[in-house]
Structure formats: C-alpha cells, structure tokens
Amino acid sequence: MLNQDIGIDLGTANTLVYVRGKGIVINEPSVVAVNKKTNKILAIGNEARNMVGRTPAHIVATRPLTKGVISDFEITEQMLRHFFDRVRNYARFPFSRPRVVIGIPSGVTEVEKRAVEDAAKNAGARQVYLIEEPMAAAIGARLPVQEAAGNMIVDIGGGTTEIAVISLGGIVAFRSLRIAGDKLNDDIIHFAQEEMKMVLGERTAEEIKIATGSAKELEDPIVAPMRGRDVLTGLPKEIMISDTHIRRALSRSVYTIVEAIKNTIEETPPELVADIMSKGIILAGGGSLLRNLDKLIAQETLMPVYVTEDPLTSVVRGTGIVLEDIDGLHEVLVSADSAAIPVY
Q1: pLDDT-derived band of residue 58, with 50, 70 and 90 as boundaries?
Q2: Domains, in order of start, for the chain
Q3: What is the sign of the dihedral through the CA atoms of 167, 168, 174 and 180?
Q4: Where are the beta strands (DSSP E) in 96-160?
Q5: 244 alpha carbon, distance to own chain's centre
Q6: Which residues of 163-185 are buried (b: 16+ CB within 10 A; e: fewer)?
Q7: Residue 118: which of 67, 62, 80 has the closest Cα?
Q8: pLDDT band at 93 (very low <50, low <70, confident <90, very high)
Q9: Which of 2, 68, 132, 301 is the most exposed place for a label (fewest CB within 10 A)?
Q10: 319: closest CA among 161, 140, 61?
C-alpha cells in the first residue's frame, strides 16, 4: 500500500484536489444531488450541478458548504469520500489513508475548523493539515511568504473574500468577507427582479456575470441576452442586458470588497505597506476575473494590482506546494486548536 498526499481547496462553489506528484486531478462544483425520499446521494460534482433547477421536488441539488464553511456535515463527508475514491481510481493503484492539506477561510471558529478535520478523517484521511486560504493562495501565487517582507493577497472565491497581509510565514492583518462570487450572482438576481421584472435562476445569473460583469467602465461595451420568467405574466421573457446594467447591480458588493482592502491596508504596519507599494496587491480566486476589478482596486488604493496566473487554482496549487515541502512550510499550517501541527 502506498501513501498519497492530497491537497484540497474545499470551496463553496468548487472543490479542487491536488495529488502530490501528479498535480490537479479534480476540479468540480461543490454540489451534491440528494433524493429526499430515500436520503440517497444521486450525483456529485458536475453531474449534480447540471441538475440545479431541473429536478423534481424530491430531488434537491445542494451545496454542503455555505460562505466557505461546512453547513451539512454528512453530505460534505460523502462528497469528500467520493473525491477520495476518484483519486484512487485516477492513481490506478491502491493506497493507504492519505495525508491531506485543506484550505479554510481565515477567521473561522474552532468548531468550524474541527468540522473540516472530522469530515476529512471520516472520509478516509489519515492526517489532516489546515491552511488558511489566503496563505495557500499566496503560496500558490509564488509569493515569498516566509521572508520578512509584506505580501498582500486578495482571494475572491465563491462564498468568501479573503484579504491578508503576510510576512514571515504569518498573517499580519486580514479581513474575511461573506461577499464573493455567490453574492454577486444574488445581486444580479435581485437586480433582474426589481429593475427588469424578471425571475432568474442562479446558473443564469452566473452566466450573465461572466458574460457582461465588470467593476469599472469598459472600453468596448458588452451586450448579452438575459432570459428568465416574467414576474407579472409568468411567461418566458428575454431582454438584452448591457455591462452598464450589471455593473450597477454589482456596485455595492464590489465597493464593499474595495473598502475592506483599504481598511486592511490601514491596519498594516508602515514598513509592510512600503513593501506592498513596491510589489503590488495580488488578486486570486474566480472573482478576480471580474473585468477591470484590478483597475478599480488600483485606483482606490493607489497601489499596483496584479491578477495571479490561473487565479481559479491558486489555493489548491498552494496546498500542493506545501505538500511538496511540508517540513519547510509547516509554520504556515494551523490546526483546529490554532497550534502548529506536528510533522511526523
């Protein structure tokens, strides 16, 4: 039996799994379809996501994580077990219970940390290491987190936005907001209902966000169709929507994120601020792909802002780098009791 170390970005929207020596082998939605009559799981990941909004009443496609933390322990455990089994099949040879590094939001409670540990162990992990998501994202972005210098990372995921200033392997200042990709989708749904008198589904809202979303005025305007149900007649309705409309819908949440970044900078020691002014603010996570978000943050903070390469995978790549050098990077890990995890 061979040991196989695994890194996991257990995200509200997507779960990514990194296998040591093989890279990222799973990148699927954190969605589970459950038959409420039998309490049996019907599908997990992409297959379950395709069922969202298209199932009879007794079949529910649900996310077991909300705002970056576990909301349904049993389903999270079964989802992890499913992904562990997928890894075993991918590896094409049996291996013993793996060591697992999991990214968690900064500032979560001890109970929430313990829930992640227990879910992973019950799903088959031998040993569980926890790393705060902004630290993992910074490592994945190849920032020198162990040096005596300031590094600022903003990781905008599905459920949370993690903002952190890192130096000497620790987080010096941070903010964790429950405003991220899912909230932007909700903003579009509410905007459509209030302004356009249309009812949209969650997937449709996300597609519109990806197609037309922006944080700052675009040089080339974008127009796309928005399809939903008319609030008044209940019949199908289609209108053309522009980037201006969607920017207005997203503006409050976007500026809340920007203000949180500015507040974090205000709490940062001056020497580290000088480092960040030189190196810039790094954006990671799917939310960083919102058009012109980097330009808006740069305008508001008066600092250079860069989107890291492949921002969707920065956290899981960070867990992978930790796995490759777990002795050298053990100081960046946290356990459920906030003590450094022993390395065996």
Answers
A1: confident
A2: 6-27+65-136+314-334 (3.30.420.40), 148-179+261-308 (3.30.420.40), 181-249 (3.90.640.10)
A3: positive
A4: 99-104, 127-132, 151-156
A5: 26
A6: bbbbbeeebbbbbbbebbbbbbb
A7: 80
A8: low
A9: 2
A10: 140
